[in-house]
Amino acid sequence: MENYGRVLVSGIAVGSLGRFLLLKVDYRQYPSFPRGYVTHLVLGIIAAALGAIAIPALAEKEYTAVTFLALAAQQFREIRSMERDSLDKIDQSELVSRGSDYIEDIAKTFEARNYIAMVTALTVSLIVYLSGNIIAGVLAGIVVFGSIVYSLKTEKVGDIADVIKASISFDGPLLMVDGVIIMNIGLAGVREKYLTRGLAARIIPRDDNARATLGSIGQRQALAHNAAAQLGIRKDVDQPEFTPIARRNTESGDIVLAVFPMEPDIECLIEAIKKTPVLESSKRKPLDSPAGRKAAD
After folding, report:
1. What are the pLDDT digits (tens) for 248-274?
2. What confidence tens digit (pLDDT) does each residue in 131-185 have?
3. What are the Cα distances from residue 291, in Å, to 225, 281, 288, 297?
4. In contact, 182 and 175? CB cutoff 8 Å
5. Which domain holds residue 43?
């Protein structure tokens, strides 16, 4: 059998490197470091190996070996289930939960990143096999990797809406943000805390697509979680009055959010909201339909 060492090694190396570059621990602290890193790196290396070995298998007419790619796809779907289950358990101990939509979005992302490693490795091994040039294969892999990552770039809330400061007020026991009722707060001491140290923001959709997307309960829960995760929250268990809630103005479609943060900085709250990802499961595009466009006119 012809020596396919360069083909395999270059494909596995570039595919694994691509998976490593996609690993990132930020304010969400997921995947965890170092245990989560190890899990995802090993899975990335396996994905790269499966992608790299496909070309030598085809070249040797070992067509049954290619069925491993189908098996890998099945295993990567199991990764999504594994991540979903893990995050669901973690979410039970969060002071402000992510919500099922946010968790599903994260799980899909981890599944997709293994496919990226596989396709990158497949591209590198194919070019190296055809040209015999490792540099050409690596460059092709970089182009494919960059193109896929760019095409899968997640929209942020700041891309579809404007975020401005809002005012907190009370109508009796009712906490209100720019005239929208948030919740009923019976304790006078808690109402005073909101008036002196609470923050609020209003999210103004730029079109009907954004209005429908931001109206999703899952998207609003992601906004509340991100605000609490980044600014901190003055809340403990069994204190629902301090739980940030994003409500919808049913007249305009605007979203308002009130929080009682550890760091009462309105500019930071606005930035946290703008950087919240638009969840794939929450995206709505009524303007893409004839009825939606006609209704918006």
Report:
1. 998 888 999 999 998 888 999 999 999
2. 888 899 999 999 999 999 888 888 899 999 999 999 999 988 999 999 899 999 9
3. 34, 22, 9, 10
4. yes
5. 5-153
Cβ(232)–Cβ(263) below 8 Å: yes
Chain-centroid distance, C-alpha 121: 24
Separation CA 200–CA 193 (nearest Å): 13
Q: 110-147: string of b/e by CB count within 10 Å (b at 16+)?
A: bbebbebbbbbbbbbbbbbbeeeebeebbebbbebbee
Both 177 and 96 in a single domain?
Answer: no
Contacting residues for 143 by C-beta, under 8 A, at least 6 apart? none
Q: What is the largest CA-CA distance in the chain?
A: 83
Among all chains, which residue has been given the structure tokens 């490693």? 117
Question: Per the structure block, which two tokens stand in for 163?
Answer: 């975020």
pLDDT digits (tens, 9 = 90+) for 43-52: 888 888 888 8
Q: Which of 131, 153, 175 is the last residue of a domain?
A: 153
Residue 32 pLDDT more than 70? no
Q: Does residue 249 belong to any structural domain of this protein?
A: yes
- Lookup: tokens for 93: 């101990």
Measure Cα distances from 33 to 25, 30, 196, 237 in Å: 7, 8, 38, 26
Q: Which residues contact 197 (CB under 8 A, 6 or more apart)?
A: 234, 260, 264
Whether the bond between 34 and the residue before it is cis, its omega within 30 degrees of 0, is: yes
Residue 290 CB partners (closer than 8 Å, separation 6+): none
- Is residue 127 located within the same domain as residue 170? no
Residue of 19 and 3 predicted with greater confidence:
19
pLDDT digits (tens, 9 = 90+) for 184-229: 998 888 899 999 999 999 999 998 889 999 999 999 999 999 999 8
256/3: higher pLDDT = 256
Q: Where are the beta strands (DSSP E) in the chain?
A: 161-165, 168-171, 174-177, 180-184, 199-205, 245-248, 255-259
